Each structure stands twice: as C-alpha cells, then as structure tokens.
Amino acid sequence: MKKILAGIMALTMLASATACDKEGKNGKTKINLYAFTDEVPGMIDKYMELHPDVAKKYEINTTIIATTEGQYQPALDQALAGGGKDAPDIYCAEAAFVLKYTQGEAAKYAAPYSDLGIDVEKGIKDAEIAQYSVDIGTNPDGKVTALGYQATGGAFIYRRSIAKDVFGTDDPKTVGEKLGAGSGNWNKFWDAADELKAKNYAIISGDGDLWHAVENSSPEGWIKDGKLHIDEKRDEFLDLSKKLKDEKLHNDTTDWQEAWFADMKGEGDTPAFGFFGPAWLINYTMAEHSGGTKAGEGTYGDWAVCESPVGFFWGGTWLLANKESKHKDVIGDIFEWITLDASKDGLQYMWANGTYNPDAPTKDCVASAKVMAMSNGEVEFLGGQNMFDVFVPANEFANGKNLTPYDEKINSIWRDQVRQYTGGEKSRDQALKDFKQKVKDELDIDAE
Question: What domain range is 243 assigned to?
C-alpha cells in the first residue's frame, strides 16, 4: 500500500497523454486511468510488459491525483459525470472512500466484473479472497464491481527486545496470549499495558494505534437507516483513549506525525512496545522509519507480529471499471491478472514473494489466500518470521460491513473530538454533542 494514505505523499498530477481523440501514440487505443498513487499504474505497466500483444494495441493515459488535499475524489467525480472520451475507463478507490463508488452515490458508474468477461464468483472462490474485501466491492444489486489486490487484515506488531524484557519471551503465540489474542475484548491488553508500564514501556505509541482496531472491528458503521449512529464499541473508544492518556500507557502521539515515526525508530521518550496494523504498515511505513535497512540497524529486525485481541482491517485499494468504457475485454484481462490470478504468473504471486520489483523486493500480503499459502512470507524486518502465518487468519477475521461512504470525513471529526475530551478541553458528553453537531453541519446527517 505504498504511499496510499492522505497526508503521506505530496500532491502530484500526471497526465501522460494529451491526445484529444480516442487514438493515443502510434495509433494505439487509449485507456484512461485515474489513480491516487503510482502503485496501480505501475502494476498495469507490468501487465503490459508481460503481455506485449496487448501493449501493441493499447496505451494507458494515466492521471494521478494524490488524496492529500482532498482533490482526488472531486476530480474523479467530475470526470465520471462528464463522460465522453476523457472519462476514466479504470479508476481506483481506497478504503476511506471506496463505498461511495461501490455502494453510494457514485456506484452507478461502476461496471460489474461479470460485464468485463470475468467469472468473478469462480475467481473469488479459487483464489480464496477474504470475504471482507468482497463485501466492500459488492454493489446494492449484489454484483461485484470492485476488488483489491492486497489483504489488509490487522495484527499487533511488537518489539521483540521489549517482549523479552517484560514477558520473558518474544514468541508470537505467547505474546498474543498476553495481549488477549482473539478474545474480542481488551481485558488482557490492559493487564499487559500495566506490566509494560512497570518497566517504563508504553504499550502503543498513540490512541490512533488503537482506533483502527476499534473502528474496523465494530459491528456497525457510522450511518444506520440514514442517521449518524455511534456503535457502542466506537463510543467505548472515548473511555479507552482516556485510560491510555490518564494512566500514561502510551506516548500520546498522533499517527503520521514525527513523534509517531520516532517510536518506530525506538527514539521516543518512553519506548513503545507496538502498533496495530496490516502488512503494509510494516513494509511501507515502519521499515522506512526504523532507522535501518538490515538487522542490527535501528529497530530493523527487532519486530514480530501476533494475533490482535480483535479482528480488524485497515486500508486497501480497489479497482473499478467505468460501465461506459468501450474497452471492457482488455480491462477485464488486466483486472483478473491483478486481483484474481492465483498462479505464479499473476501480479499477486510476484507481490507476495517480493519479485514484482527486483529493485525493491518487498513482500506483502495479497488478496488471495491461495497465493499466500504457496508463498514465502519470511521477512527480515520481523526477525525472519513468516508474517503470512498471522496475517492470513487475520484477513478472515476482518469485517467489511461496517464501512460507509462518509467514513473519511466522520473519522476526522471523531478523532478531533476524542482528542479534545482526553486532553481535558471538554467533557465526554460535550465531545459527543459537538461530534454530532459537526457531522450535521458538514455532512447534513442527523444523529439518531
């Protein structure tokens, strides 16, 4: 999930072709692609490299607009609504706003995968795609219009050296049990936090590290029957966050800020034990901020993963095709190669085994559990642990039915109100009242 989150990459816009008619360079047929990073464009470039017969006929006209300043969705929406020769044939959506394009107001533009010539039900079954990912990509008519190439089920990523010091072992199974792996509650997590505190360690860096696990393990999302709904597990986050701060069990950092990255490097005021997250957090964020590139440098190699107390997912990118596109057959072939091909010739096998880009041989968790079962998930950053042993089951525990098209904005409002409450700026009741009012003011959605 390289550079996918808002706030991480600088705003870039690329338009690789300026031809105004349907023909691209050298008479090739142009396929328009809208994306928010260079990741999917790079995958399609790889497809073209491996399928020269297709590359002779088609060229990809790529527009990349980062999500950083909130400009991607408006630009995509305008292009979809405008139609015609400049409309996207292929477009991408991430977890924060994908439901808008699969089940919300923009779902009307997306073509079912079956219309692309894909036997999608068979493909999903054969590749063993996690159900949460399928649920997210299924439209109100029950048809799959989007699939991803990653699996983003979450686990707990912890420092081995701290585990040995506090718990006497860094074994993932034992550490998971100490944290309450699979219990569905936070009871043992708090016991572990107290043990860590006694030795001057913070169990996590900031409350954001807990929020993603809480948010994406809650049974229900922010909207229910057209009204703002606060699931009891999300409501409880106010108390969890307050406990973390009042009892000094975390370092009170904000995710994606320098102090958060410093904890990954082991340079925070109080050493942080771990982070909740999926494999992409390890590969593209923690490794980058570990202070090293091989074992023994910084915290590189001093990490491991274990099962989380609750099942959750965080992030992901889904691929969609415009139902008005005249290039459905070739788009279908591209999508199948990226999202469903479980052979050693597909994108996912290369992605899982670190052979996709030889210059940056990063292994990642992919959508297909079948691919991961036949892949080597041993990662030096994790001290040689096979991360697939933890992340494959994690993907099955994840719930994809608690998202709404408004999550990105509502989450921002919620996190701000939680911080004001835990910081002592307002009462719990006032924070909830202000949260509901801001959602009403900014999204015109009434509370239940």
Answer: 155-312+378-397
Confidence bin at 25 (pLDDT 50/70/90): low
Q: How far is CA 148 from the centre of its chain?
A: 10
Same domain for 24 and 95, yes or no, is: yes
- What pTM was estimated for this model as a whole? 0.87
CATH number of the domain bearing residue 71? 3.40.190.10
Q: Give helix 160-167 / helix 187-198 axis angle, nearest 10°.
A: 90
Residue-wise pLDDT for 139-158, tens only, equals 999 999 999 999 898 999 99
What is the Cα–Cα distance from 230 to 417, expressed in whole angstroms?
13
CB contact at 8 A, 10 and 66: yes
Give the other-Cβ count within 10 Å of 297's Cβ. 12
- pLDDT at residue 2 tops 50: no
Q: Is the pLDDT of residue 9 over 80?
A: no
Query: In Å, what is the CA distance from 290 to each residue of 28, 96, 153, 250, 418?
Result: 45, 26, 22, 19, 29
> Do the domain assignments include residue 410?
no
Q: Are residues 136 and 194 in the same domain?
A: no
Question: For residues 87 and 75, what is the distance between their CA atoms, to the nearest angstrom?
Answer: 11
Q: Distance between CA atoms of 76 and 430, rounded to whole angstroms?
A: 37
Token pair recorded at residue 412: 């921002």
